[in-house]
Each structure stands twice: as structure tokens, then as C-alpha cells.
Specification:
- The protein has three domains: 129 residues, Sulfite Reductase Hemoprotein, domain 2 (Alpha-Beta Complex), CATH 3.90.480; 135 residues, Sulfite Reductase Hemoprotein, domain 1, CATH 3.30.413; 113 residues, Sulfite Reductase Hemoprotein, domain 1.
- Helix content is 27%, strand content 20%.
- It has twelve helices and 19 strands.
- Strands 1-2-5-4-13 form a five-stranded antiparallel beta sheet. Strands 3-14-15-12-11 form a five-stranded antiparallel beta sheet. A five-stranded mixed beta sheet has the order 6-7-8-9-10, covered by helices on one side.
- Helix 1 packs antiparallel against helix 2, helix 1 runs antiparallel to helix 8 and helix 10 packs parallel to helix 11.
- The longest helix has 17 residues.
- The structure holds iron/sulfur cluster.
């Protein structure tokens, strides 16, 4: 186990490499495919209360992290995770298992491709090749089988996404590289990861930093191999002639490649389907799933224990989603009342689903305000904006952990007060003097009168 660390750039907590924060250690448990049996979920809930402060964050990579773990309870917690078969052999193996997959993998007959067998296979190949252990900590993969809960809009450094004709579309840094057959999907994804490692400079941590060079390399002859364009290039990418080389991407079909994919930062399923009981399409008309959302991605041990009990009663499993929610499936009946009794969000129109908020202080050492608590207090006044299509980001500091993309309204903590910016990210300068929570509430209530019925009519000038 590594020494717990304060946060440094480009670093993520794990179980074997926990992060020290304002409320103790953060221990992240990485779940293969986001899947939890009811027994494991109940055991993790018990562990969160016994070894931590009982608070659990759901991450945008479909993992969970326990908060408030103490130095003296860390080792007993790791022992418990090992008993549950949820502890990796090394911190490096844990870190490289950065794979997001379709939350209904293996359960959704309407999926174009069942990616469930590929999830663990990809993890094992990442763990088993030391070369991949040098991938940056936040570098991640995505496997999208399509179907009822496709991962459209969820970003990853390397993504393979099912197409209707049974092929995968291969993307790197949001750019489409081409198409591959299902059986070649993992080889192609790992081939791109190899090229990332070869092309990156020391300060380049994400695929988007090198994707243009990667595309250029795919189009041009390789100086190392001496191959000319018409004969393919060294790593097998598409050539001007349309022929493939013999490298790791030899299976790529370039004819449907596009220059860019625009990936919205707001997860549509999170808004549309949180709390909604949806029917799985296909051959099992009785199979249902239910999505329970935790306000701002945080729940407590009792709520996780309650979800585990509901899943056990109905013979379902739990799946964490990249939209910071927990899905129960398959189900034969509506469990909305049972989930609602736990205090979790079951109304898809709950404004908190459209508000991104990091923990802020005191949980985070960098927090200048209590972002999540304040976001909950501001939710009634922010609801008016959300109903009209606005996105909202409440950030404990300018780092903006909860949302990278700009939001219609961005509130950023500054010394216990809030700056505000419109159509901006958390690093944008405030457009007003920093306000107290009371001043901010009054400001927003007044500005709501000028906010248009439709977001498309939104005028920043009227908001100022
Ligand atoms: S944005 Fe929030 S979670 Fe991230 S460092 Fe700042 S206060 Fe902490």
C-alpha cells in the first residue's frame, strides 16, 4: 500500500493508494463493470460505516469511494475489501483498471453488442501488461454495447462503441478512428493505447493531447518502417489509399471515419431516466430496471444498505452508472416506493439532477465553500432555471472537479462567498463581486424573472 497522499495533478485515489482529504482518507473501490451483488453492496455499506464516516460518493467512472477513513482503520478496511475479492494485487493494477462499460451489459437484449465478456478481459489485459501501467492515472477506456442505456455523451480516452451492424466504432480523444469487428475491438483499443504511450510528451496525460498526432501518424508513412502511404503504415491505421497496414489497428475500416464527435457533457440518461422505471426491450418483456440517483452523487451507508436489501428481495443486482446513480436490474415489479423511502432521488424532474456540485469544504481541503450543502439550499431557486433547460455547476473552488464543461450558471467558491459566471466553466472570472449565500439567493430569484422560457432565448446580458 502506498502512503496516503494529498491531491496532485492528474492523480486519482484508489484503495491501495488512498487520498487524504478534509474529512479523512478517501478510499475508492473500483468495481468491474460497476457491478455489485446485493451481498457485496451490503458488506461495503457496513464497511463504510465501520471504517469511514459512512459517506459514499458515486464517481463518474461508475466506482464508489468511501470517505472519512482513518489512518488506524485503513488496514482493516483493506482486509475487508480483500475478503470481498475487491482488492487488487498492487496499486498499479488497481490504477490501470479504468474501464467504463454499459450499465446494463449482459442484461439488455436490445444491446447491439453484449460487452459484458469484454469488460473483465480488457481489465486483465491492462493489468497483465506492465507497459500499460505507465498510462496516466486518469486515462480511461469505455465499452458501449448500445441498447436502452447507451453511453452516448460519456467521454473516455479510448472508446469502442457498438454500431447497429455489429461492428464497433473506435474513438480516441473524442475523434472517430474507424470501425472494427467485435472480435478485434480490444486489440484495436489497446493498440491505440500503445501509440498514445509512444507519442505522448511527459506533460500530456489524456488522449485528446495527442490525438491529432495519432491521426497524422495513421495517414502518413512511418519513418521507422519505410512503408509508403499506399502500402499502409507501421501501426496499421487507415491510409490515403484506404488499405490497412499490419500493425495493431490493421482491422480498422476507415470508410466511416469522421473528423470529430461532439460529446455533450450532460448525460441525457441521467436526466431522463433517473428514477424512471424503464422496460428492457427485446425478448424479455418482463425485465425492468430502476435507476436511483443520489443527490450530487453522494449517499450514506444506510442508503446503500437499503438498496442492497431491495435488490436482494427482488433477485436483482446493483450496477453503478457513470451518471452517478445506481441501477437495480432485472426487476419484475416497480420498486419506486421502496427506493423513495431511502431518501434517494426517484423523480426524473428533481432539479438536483441537473446541478453538478463537488463536496467542497469541509470534505475537501481546497474547498472555499460547502458546495454540495449550498447546492441543496439553492436547489429551490435554481429549479426555475433548470426547468427552462439551464445547466448549473456549484464548485467549491476554481478547479471545478464536478464538471469540466461550461454550464449556463457557474457558481464558484471564493473565501466563503460565491462568484458567478454565465455560459462559462469554473475557471472563468466572476461577473459580480463575490456574494454570500443569502445575497446569491436573492440575486438568482431576481434574475429568474429575466430568464427566458426556453434556454435557446437565453441572453447573458439580461442575466447580468
Ligand atoms: S472543485 Fe471541489 S472537490 Fe475539487 S478541489 Fe475544489 S473544492 Fe475540492
Amino acid at each position: 500500500m502506498s502512503e496516503p497522499s494529498n491531491q496532485v495533478k492528474g492523480w486519482c485515489p484508489g484503495a491501495l493508494r488512498p487520498m487524504r482529504s478534509g474529512d479523512g482518507l478517501i478510499v475508492r473501490v473500483r468495481l468491474t463493470g460497476g457491478e455489485l451483488t446485493p451481498e457485496r453492496a451490503a458488506a461495503l455499506a457496513e464497511a463504510a460505516g465501520r471504517f469511514g464516516n459512512g459517506l459514499i460518493d458515486l464517481t463518474s467512472r461508475a466506482n464508489l469511494q468511501m470517505r472519512g477513513v482513518r489512518d488506524e482503520t485503513l488496514q482493516p478496511l483493506l482486509d475487508r475489501l480483500a475478503e470481498l475479492d475487491l482488492l487488487d494485487a498492487s496499486a498499479a493494477a488497481e490504477q490501470v483498471r479504468n474501464v467504463i462499460a454499459s450499465p446494463l451489459a449482459g442484461l439488455d437484449p436490445s444491446a447491439s453488442i453484449d460487452v459484458q465478456p469484454l469488460i473483465r478481459a480488457l481489465e486483465l489485459r491492462l493489468i497483465g501488461n506492465d507497459r500499460f501501467h505507465s498510462l496516466p492515472a486518469k486515462f480511461g477506456f469505455l465499452l458501449d454495447g448500445g441498447g436502452v442505456l447507451s453511453l452516448d455523451g460519456v467521454e473516455a480516452d479510448i472508446a469502442v462503441r457498438a454500431e447497429d451492424d455489429g461492428h464497433f466504432r473506435l474513438e480516441a480523444g473524442g475523434e472517430v478512428l474507424g470501425r472494427v469487428r467485435v472480435e478485434e475491438g480490444l486489440d484495436a483499443a489497446l493498440g491505440v493505447a500503445e501509440r498514445f504511450l509512444a507519442l505522448r510528451q511527459p506533460d500530456e496525460r489524456r488522449m485528446r493531447d495527442v490525438v491529432i498526432r495519432l491521426q497524422d501518424e495513421a495517414r502518413l508513412p512511418s519513418p521507422r518502417s519505410g512503408l509508403c502511404i499506399s502500402e499502409g503504415n507501421a501501426w496499421g491505421g487507415p491510409t490515403k489509399s484506404g488499405r490497412m497496414g499490419e500493425g495493431p489497428l490493421a482491422a480498422l475500416q476507415p470508410e466511416k471515419a469522421a473528423l470529430a464527435v461532439h460529446t455533450p457533457s450532460v448525460a441525457p440518461h441521467f436526466v431522463e431516466k433517473a428514477g424512471a422505471l424503464s422496460r428492457l426491450a427485446g425478448h424479455h418483456p418482463s425485465a425492468l430496471f430502476f435507476t436511483a440517483a443520489a443527490p450530487f452523487g453522494r449517499l450514506d451507508a444506510g442508503q446503500l444498505e437499503g438498496l442492497a436489501a431491495i435488490a436482494a428481495r427482488h433477485g436483482a443486482t446493483l450496477r453503478l452508472t457513470p451518471w452517478r446513480s445506481i441501477l437495480l436490474a432485472p426487476l419484475a415489479v416497480d420498486v419506486g416506493m421502496e427506493v423513495s423511502s431511502l431518501g434517494l432521488v426517484v423523480d426524473p424532474h428533481d432539479p438536483r439532477l441537473a446541478i453538478a456540485a463537488c463536496p467542497g469544504s469541509p470534505s475537501c481541503l481546497s474547498g472555499e465553500v460547502s458546495a454540495q450543502a449550498d447546492a441543496a439550499r439553492l436547489a429551490p431557486v435554481l429549479a426555475g432555471f433548470v426547468e427552462r433547460g439551464a445547466s448549473v455547476h456549484v464548485s467549491g473552488c476554481a478547479k471545478g472537479c464536478a464538471r469540466r464543461a461550461p454550464a449556463s450558471i457557474t457558481l464558484v467558491g471564493q473565501g466563503g462567498r460565491y462568484g458567478i459566471a454565465f455560459d462559462a466553466d469554473s475557471k472563468a472570472p466572476s461577473e459580480t463581486e463575490p456574494m454570500s449565500l443569502g445575497e446569491l439567493t436573492a440575486f438568482l430569484a431576481k434574475r429568474l424573472q429575466h430568464f427566458p422560457e426556453k434556454l435557446s432565448d437565453f441572453s447573458i446580458k439580461k442575466m447580468r
